[in-house]
Inverse folding.
């Protein structure tokens, strides 16, 4: 999985400003309560700048946040400095996850698993995760759908104009590889009103529900439920994001 550079980390929250992390924390905790009586220690996998970790800690959970980007984790530590209980942050690739013990549940959101470099890498991440979610524990995650990659992201271009940055987001869809290449151009103003340009590139891979189910089962997880995009309902044919609930067997 790519370790995002300092520029992307700096503007990550600004570009995703519409995400209600408090609502996401409540959503995940509600799902956990449906399938498990006790859940105190939670892994926030690919935690980014720690927004979800902070919300989980504010609800009394012990949280371990793992991300491959030191720049993201630097912001996460600053953001969660006053959390009680404190959040433990670790700089690790998902495919090389190595915790000190097991957790009651793991959460991975904002299509982070799509960013792993293909089915082999996704399988390796799940292989590592199986050792650190206790039997009966849960793994909850979301993923962008093949429909979104093909029809929404596709070969399209998006523009984000915020107070902090002007960002041009360009996509290139590869049907042969089932992946979309994403190129971000950041135009950042300085104190003189001039702009300088920085770039970030990464790739997202598409996975069918059947492929995700197979990889979960190969790595000691049972798929319990698949929902539409944080709706609590069954997904529709044009769903852009799916929420998966799996149990460590």
């Amino acid at each position: 999985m790519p370790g995002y550079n300092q520029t992307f980390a700096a503007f990550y929250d600004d570009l995703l400003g519409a995400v209600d992390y408090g609502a996401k924390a409540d959503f995940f905790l509600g799902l956990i309560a449906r399938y498990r009586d006790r859940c105190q220690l939670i892994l926030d996998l690919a935690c980014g700048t720690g927004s979800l970790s902070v919300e989980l800690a504010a609800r009394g959970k012990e949280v371990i946040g793992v991300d491959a980007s030191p720049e993201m984790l630097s912001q996460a530590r600053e953001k969660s400095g006053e959390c009680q209980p404190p959040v433990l942050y670790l700089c690790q690739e998902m495919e090389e996850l190595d915790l000190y013990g097991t957790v009651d549940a793991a959460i991975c959101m904002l299509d982070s698993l799509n960013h792993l470099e293909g089915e082999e890498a996704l399988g390796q991440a799940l292989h590592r995760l199986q050792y650190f979610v206790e039997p009966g524990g849960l793994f909850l995650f979301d993923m962008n759908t093949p429909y979104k990659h093909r029809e929404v992201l596709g070969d399209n271009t998006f523009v984000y104009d915020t107070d902090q940055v002007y960002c041009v987001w360009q996509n290139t869809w590869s049907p042969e590889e089932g992946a979309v290449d994403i190129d971000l151009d950041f135009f950042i103003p300085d104190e003189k009103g001039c702009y300088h340009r920085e770039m970030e590139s990464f790739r997202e891979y598409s996975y069918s529900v059947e492929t995700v189910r197979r990889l979960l089962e190969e790595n000691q997880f049972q798929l319990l439920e698949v929902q539409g995009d944080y709706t609590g309902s069954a997904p529709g044919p044009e769903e852009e994001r799916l929420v998966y609930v799996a149990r460590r067997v």
About this structure: The longest helix spans residues 21-35.
